[in-house]
Structures are given as structure tokens and as C-alpha cells.
Design a protein that fits this description.
The chain is an alpha+beta fold. 22% of the residues lie in helices and 31% in strands. Strands 1, 2, 3, 6, 7, 8, 10, 12 and 14 form a 9-stranded antiparallel β-sheet that branches. Strands 9, 11, 13, 15, 16, 17 and 20 form a 7-stranded antiparallel β-sheet that branches. It has a two-stranded antiparallel ribbon with strand order 4-5. Residues 377-454 form the Deoxyribonuclease NucA/NucB domain.
């Protein structure tokens, strides 16, 4: 009996020592039925910031699979090249809108000069503070700014049942924030990524290799996805990432030949972050983040008076463009009031029509750009229809006024194609000129391409106070 008690005490002490010296060790009550003397499993998953990180880690440690938890797992699979029609069909389903910051035009030498183009990029903390930044879809701030932050969790669970039951978890967790920068003037997109909030459950994992890269795949043309060799993948130990958790990547597109099918030489790529964890003596695992896309174009009509030209561009196009006017902007408040009345009170506008419905507002029928370069006849038809309507319905011509129309003559919803669902109003010539210059600049700054050639390209109009 005495020897039995000594043996029992020694066993308890051994179990306690094993628990204390082995991080994340869990003593199991008994060996599972049918289990081998050694049991292991390894998971590596991606999950958004708004998920319960601690619960996911615990569930993975207990052996639940990523599929059971509804998590991404493994390498992203790229599809074969697609047609522009297929891509545009997806673009037409975009729901998210974004705000555009653009200064008003400036009056110089008896004419209105539009603002110079400027980027409104995303800073790291700005991404983390925005709820959309922590989702699977990410946040498109505008057509040149994208970000997504998410957690990667690598879990290797190793259980041994002899000489006593014991399980050890070798885990690495980290947050990865990806920030994308589009370009107006180049077929190039750049990414910065930040690795932080790194946690390990075993000192051994500090020496694990962690390789991170931003991968891409062509969607329409073979040259849509090219990686700049000056920004290769970065591989360092976990401990080194803790000291310097930053990397960058540049991707670019080779423009296809200009054709009638694709006159603006559009190209698309999809991108994602690939992480590879390689601990010494443990399984290597790869995990990819969700995919997002970039649109490239070389539209020849991206020009802003008097001297700004943007022959190429790279944008994040999965968000609805919204052209914004303001009633408090003196340079063009008359035009803004006209557009607001047309969208909100179409029955009060000229020319009269029963059950009049004017498109353009958010949540309503969208507008599509009509480019005179490709469709000069249709553009002239819009202008001619507007002039004749103004002569008929607004014959009085106060000095220094012009006839303004909505929807714009530069859209496929203009007067010639509207079946009476349009509005005309006489406003000051200066206001009309400022609003027109502002519209032309916005087309180029947001890279709005022709809406008949590419039906997935559309926009809405918003009038702010």
C-alpha cells in the first residue's frame, strides 16, 4: 500500500512537471478510443477581424476542422481566363459606394479650371478603425484605395498517450493588414502589408519561417498579372517579423492590343495574400486570404482641361462610383439644385410629361458615360435634343444664362434616349460652365469608361447640402 502511494505521488509530480515545462500542454483524462499512440493535426486558417479570435483558436486546438468552423483554409484556386462580358456581369452587381473628395473648380482668366488630381489613400490605422477594413470583402475607400485586415492562425496539435497522456499546441497567430494603392496614369498597383499582434504558444515557434507574398492571376488577358521583380516575397522567422513587420509588393499589367472589342485595352487581375509557415520539424502549411480584383485600362479620352492627361490607370473597381455635387458650393449650386430637383421631383421639371421618372439617384436607375470619341453621332443627338427642348419650353433667355440638362449629354440616358425623362433649366453661364468642367474632371479622375462598350461601368449622382 505504501509503495502504491509513492508511485501515485510520483506520477502526479511527473504530470505537473510536464504541464509546467510544456507550453499549452493539456492533460487528457484518457486515450480516445481507436487513437494511435501519437496523434497530430495541423490547421492554418484566415479569419476576419470581426470574428472571435480566441474561440477560433480554442476550437482549432481541440481538433475542430476549418470546414466545421466555416473558415478559409488552403490555397486559392484561380480560374482560367474569362471574357470581358463575364467580368462586367460581376461588376454590375457591385453594391458598395464610396465617397469622392474633389475640390471645386477655380475661376481663372474668365474660365473655370478644374482641381488638380490628388489621391486619397488609406493609412494603416485608418484601415483598422474602419469596420469594413476587418471584413472578408475589405474596404474600398475610393477607386485608388483598398485595404483589408485579417488574422492568420497556424495550429499544430500533437498528442502522446505514453508514458502518460499529454497534448501540446504549437501555435502562431498574427494580424496582417494589406493596403492597396491604385494609380492614375500607370497600369500599376502597389501594396503595403503589415504583420503585427504576433502571438506564439511555444518558444519553438519564434524560430518558424514565415513567408508572405501578394500573389496575382490574370483574368482577361495573359499580360494582366505581372509581378515587379524588385518586390519579391519576404521570408523571415517569426521573431524577425516581430521586430520588422512590413513588406511591399508591386503588380502591373501589359496592355493588350486595342481592338473594337476592347478599345480601352481593359485588363483585370485578382490578388490575394499568401502566407507560408514552416516550423522546424513540424508540417509546412500555406494559407491564402480572400481574393479581390484590380481593373487596368488605357482609355485615350482621360483628359482634363487644360493639360492633365491620364493615358493609363489601375483601380479597385468593385464599388459604385457616385458623382457628388453640393448645394453649399457657390461655384455650381444652381446646377446642383437642378440635379436634385430632377431626381427627387421629376414631375416639377421641364419639359412636362406624365409619370416622369428621371434616373441617376442612388438606389435608382444608374447613368452610363457616353464618350464622343467613340459615339460622336449619339452625343450630337443628345445636344440637339436639348437645344430644341430649350427653344420650345424655355424661350426666354436672360442675359448670361445657359440651358442646363440632366441627365448629362455625356450619358446614354441623355435627352435623345430618355423618352421624355429628362430635365432642362436655365442657369447662369458661369455655374453651368463650372459644373461641366467638374463633371469632365471627375470622369477622368475616377476613370469612368464608356458605358455602352462596357455595360458594367455605371455611376450615380448625389447632391449634398
Amino acid at each position: 500500500m505504501y509503495r502504491k502511494r509513492i508511485w501515485e505521488r510520483m506520477l502526479v509530480i511527473a504530470l505537473l512537471i510536464a504541464f509546467l515545462v510544456t507550453p499549452s500542454a493539456e492533460v487528457e483524462a484518457k486515450k480516445p478510443v481507436g487513437a494511435d499512440d501519437k496523434e497530430t493535426h495541423t490547421w492554418f486558417v484566415y479569419h476576419p477581424l470581426d470574428s472571435d479570435e480566441e474561440k477560433i483558436k480554442q476550437d482549432l486546438e481541440r481538433g475542430k476542422s476549418p470546414e466545421e468552423l466555416g473558415l478559409l483554409n488552403g490555397k486559392a484556386k484561380s480560374k482560367s481566363l474569362r471574357t470581358l462580358e463575364e467580368i462586367q456581369a460581376g461588376e454590375a452587381k457591385k453594391k458598395t459606394t464610396y465617397n469622392v473628395k474633389m475640390d471645386p473648380p477655380v475661376k481663372t482668366a474668365d474660365t473655370w479650371t478644374p482641381p488638380r488630381f490628388r489621391y486619397d489613400y488609406i493609412a494603416k490605422q485608418e484601415c483598422l478603425d474602419n469596420p469594413a477594413g476587418g471584413t472578408l470583402e475589405g474596404w474600398i475607400k475610393n477607386r485608388y484605395a483598398f485595404c483589408r485586415a485579417g488574422n492568420f492562425t497556424y495550429v499544430h496539435r500533437e498528442c502522446r498517450w505514453l508514458p502518460f497522456p499529454r497534448c501540446t499546441n504549437y501555435n502562431v497567430q498574427y494580424r496582417l493588414t494589406l493596403i492597396g494603392f491604385g494609380k492614375n496614369g500607370q497600369r500599376e498597383v502597389e501594396f503595403d502589408y503589415y504583420v503585427d499582434n504576433i502571438q506564439v504558444t511555444h518558444p519553438r515557434m519564434n524560430g518558424a519561417k514565415l513567408k508572405i507574398d501578394v500573389n496575382c492571376a490574370s483574368l482577361v488577358n495573359p499580360g494582366d498579372c505581372r509581378e515587379d521583380p524588385s518586390t519579391p516575397a519576404v521570408e523571415k522567422t517569426v521573431a524577425q517579423w516581430k521586430n520588422h513587420g512590413f513588406g511591399t509588393k508591386k503588380l502591373y499589367s501589359i496592355p493588350p492590343d486595342r481592338t473594337d472589342y476592347n478599345p480601352d485595352r481593359l485588363g483585370y487581375l485578382e490578388f490575394w495574400v499568401r502566407s507560408v509557415v514552416s516550423p522546424s520539424g513540424l508540417p509546412t502549411r500555406t494559407e491564402d486570404s480572400p481574393k479581390e480584383s484590380v481593373r487596368f485600362d488605357s482609355a485615350p479620352y482621360m483628359f482634363v482641361f487644360p493639360d492633365q492627361r491620364f493615358p493609363h490607370g489601375a483601380i479597385f473597381s468593385k464599388a459604385k462610383p457616385v458623382l457628388q455635387y453640393s448645394l453649399s458650393e457657390p461655384a455650381m449650386n444652381e446646377a446642383a439644385q437642378h440635379y436634385k430637383d430632377a431626381m427627387e421631383r421629376p414631375g416639377s421639371t421641364v419639359p412636362p410629361k406624365a409619370n416622369k421618372q428621371i434616373p441617376g439617384a442612388e438606389g435608382d436607375q444608374a447613368l452610363h458615360r457616353l464618350t464622343p470619341r467613340y459615339h460622336p453621332t449619339e452625343y450630337r443627338q443628345n445636344r440637339t435634343k436639348t437645344r430644341s427642348a430649350c427653344e420650345k419650353w424655355l424661350p426666354d433667355k436672360p442675359e448670361n444664362t445657359e440651358c442646363d440638362e440632366f441627365p448629362f449629354a455625356s450619358t446614354w440616358e441623355g435627352a435623345a434616349f430618355a423618352d421624355g425623362n429628362f430635365s432642362i433649366r436655365r442657369i447662369s453661364a458661369e455655374d453651368n460652365n463650372a459644373a461641366g468642367r467638374w463633371l469632365a474632371a471627375w470622369y477622368a479622375y475616377d476613370r469612368i469608361i464608356d458605358g455602352k462598350t462596357y455595360p458594367g461601368e455605371f455611376f450615380h449622382v448625389r447632391v449634398n447640402q
